[in-house]
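Schema walkthrough. Field components (list of strings):
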Amino acid sequence: MSRNAVQESLYTTIFGTETRAGKTFDVTLIIIILASIAVLMLESVGEMQAKYGDWFFTIEWGFTLFFTVEYALRLYCSPAPKAYAKSFYGIVDLLAILPTYIAMLFPGANYLMAVRLLRVLRIFRVLKLMRYLEESNVLLAALKSSSRKIFIFFYAVMVLVTIFGSLMFVIEGPERGFTSIPYSIYWAIVTMTTVGYGDLVPQTDIGKALASITMLMGYSIIAVPTGIITAQMGQQMTTQRQTTLCPNCSKPGHENDAVFCKFCGSELSQKEKQT
Amino acid sequence: MSRNAVQESLYTTIFGTETRAGKTFDVTLIIIILASIAVLMLESVGEMQAKYGDWFFTIEWGFTLFFTVEYALRLYCSPAPKAYAKSFYGIVDLLAILPTYIAMLFPGANYLMAVRLLRVLRIFRVLKLMRYLEESNVLLAALKSSSRKIFIFFYAVMVLVTIFGSLMFVIEGPERGFTSIPYSIYWAIVTMTTVGYGDLVPQTDIGKALASITMLMGYSIIAVPTGIITAQMGQQMTTQRQTTLCPNCSKPGHENDAVFCKFCGSELSQKEKQT
Amino acid sequence: MSRNAVQESLYTTIFGTETRAGKTFDVTLIIIILASIAVLMLESVGEMQAKYGDWFFTIEWGFTLFFTVEYALRLYCSPAPKAYAKSFYGIVDLLAILPTYIAMLFPGANYLMAVRLLRVLRIFRVLKLMRYLEESNVLLAALKSSSRKIFIFFYAVMVLVTIFGSLMFVIEGPERGFTSIPYSIYWAIVTMTTVGYGDLVPQTDIGKALASITMLMGYSIIAVPTGIITAQMGQQMTTQRQTTLCPNCSKPGHENDAVFCKFCGSELSQKEKQT
Amino acid sequence: MSRNAVQESLYTTIFGTETRAGKTFDVTLIIIILASIAVLMLESVGEMQAKYGDWFFTIEWGFTLFFTVEYALRLYCSPAPKAYAKSFYGIVDLLAILPTYIAMLFPGANYLMAVRLLRVLRIFRVLKLMRYLEESNVLLAALKSSSRKIFIFFYAVMVLVTIFGSLMFVIEGPERGFTSIPYSIYWAIVTMTTVGYGDLVPQTDIGKALASITMLMGYSIIAVPTGIITAQMGQQMTTQRQTTLCPNCSKPGHENDAVFCKFCGSELSQKEKQT
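Field assembly_structure (string):
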């Protein structure tokens, strides 16, 4: 099936960001997404729901229809509809409309868990906004490149909180609030991450001593992953400088924001830059 | 209008810091600013206000008149009064005196919100102190140069707290204190930033599990922006830069071995190099 | 005693990870370890223990017998059984089975401290999992290489919390909850590590001022060890090192351009350089 | 006055750490310091004081006499007694004995503030321990070299908490616990440093929004000083490598733990190394 002019034009507007129409579309979409999230939040406030419940119902259907049309158009004009449907943003776009339709199928009590879940899942529309901030990819890439190290750090923290939580269960015991090992592990996480709710605190002297060790450990070991990630990023930035060569004089060492070669003044080819 | 000798002399004293008179003026001003902030703080203490309210009123008018004269003199002796009035410190200087005058126009009940706000806005005089610490500009520059990255980090954190907060609203629900999505997002922020007030804590087992994930995430991802900022600063500090500007596009920040401008490709004049 | 074929084959399966059988064994072991920890956690929940206590007892014996056989086989097939038994994982493997046997010797009341401790010590089986994540060694190495610096940081923090805690004891005193110096030091640790349970807070104005200083100090000094560790790691990662050992003193870690050993001054043999 | 043999010998034992006698003296002193701190801590526990008060009194006098003799001997054998008396450790040594003597002059009620202060000041003996950990100087040097930056960070944080605290005072007001500006600033410090006691939390919606901004700011800006300090330390470590030259071949770039030149194998002069 060959693509026609309508599809091409729609594609430039909906997926592109260079044209005037594309920019207008994007700004409109951002505003509508934010509005739909705002409505969802207001809806969750008891008094608001009691007072304006009917309005919210109507407005929400308006948003859902708009996002449904948007999703249909994206499928229609995309050169590879299947790839889009399976992509991260394709799934997010689908999830943005599904809950309202499913909720329609199960009418009834308003605040049952399942219904509330469906209503709230619409909050994932916030992910649609990520498309509009290029740099969010930089952060995601940074998280991804260090994900293995962060995972190991998680793993080490998990082992530590399991051990500290279990010891605390033995020391304080159910009679002082540490009712089970999983709950004691929850305490250890609250303590080690330095959150410290204070809903569960040690009461014996040994318990306080162990809690102190847990805190000091949590306070100190955060320096290790920070160090690893920072060192790696510093190296990545240096590598980037070393691997960007001038197409004219082949010299490396250009800064990341350089457009022209600092040695011969010729323009640096954009293809070779990977910033 | 040509500047006369009085203006020149005042300018050196008020804006300058090299002369003896300039230094005396600066030290006096710092002491008066600190005194005015101290008075404002004491004024906010109920018992103090009840006891010494009249004294505070008189003293505050003294401070306001002093700062009014200072502002007038700065405007008078500045070679570019308009530019000063529009500058950051010009606005701060004006804000330091306005609240007292406006409060005079609306006498009456002492602790109404609006009046309290006007009284407290005088606290911004603290910003006048920033003029006297050169290095505060270093920190501001550091914040500015990494503001885009910090903003993206903020954005990512906002998306995460929106999702975690909403899920928590579904799991715990209004019957356990999570009365609305905005309030649940507040909980998510308190938890993710590892503040952990403890005024709102999960009570179900699933809620505690989700809270644990939120905490561990907040504890870990702080390493990413720290890493990015540190790596960038490290590179900036290790790169020796010329003090010269590009003769064509006037942009600074060229490395020592640069012969051509990295922004526009024109040759950097060797005479202007000073390193 | 020469090793026979059975020992060799078992060794490849149990200690190795390259063969198909070895991988199957490892995956099975991981699942059983996780299952045994899960059972232990459920066992600690009062209601579960009351309901399924007998089942847990039987299952736990199953796990213990399995780990006993595993330990025996490891001892049998290891080329150096004594070295294995004394190694970190050898001791962990032994600790994974001992508590159940010891608990058998002391039957009786279920929730006495000692019995609970024995039951919970089985949680250390979680350490057996560390064998299966190579990178955990990277983290351990990072912790080890910076352990001296972290220790000094600990030491400095200990001195600070001792002083701040003692001053707080004097300021607030037993009548406001700070009943003794050790307990006040516990407060100082909770505050300085930014955990902030809130179970003990200053109530006088001077106490609040001192607490503010403690918090700001805890908030700031964390930057120092992070900085030290990060800088050291950055340098270690950027330095390209030879894989060769010094022929005289056998120390590793020489840089690529090194011709002589930096520790003993003897010439590094060029044949052994492999970079 | 020329120094005699007794003075020389005492000096080597008390101030030195190389001889066997010097080491024995140091270890003994560390044990006695720790013991005296332990006694002080036990003394602060109400029940202990009630039960063993007389014993503590006697033991404390023993410690004080011992430290008095130590101080006298240090003064006697030091080649520059005045310089020692004015040095950091000289003052610490004096402070370690003074409180007991002063307390003797003012007998009477046990738990008056002033008496308690005198008793507790003995805790500063903990500072005597710093003499025995060489690396504590490394940390102190690190803190000192970055003290200006940490101070500016403090200063910026102070400005921020003043502004946030004052705004919160206006928003929440005395009727919701924010009784005065200083107390609201205390809240801002508790929040911004991510300690989060929870003894004072915002209750209005605007208050919660402002608190969220305060938390996110505190969570993010910690990355800036960490970045600055880390970058500076990295540079210091590089500089150290560059400025250590081999006395034989004059080449720079030796690692910090190098004893021999890696290029020519000659020993690096210890005088030129500054680690």
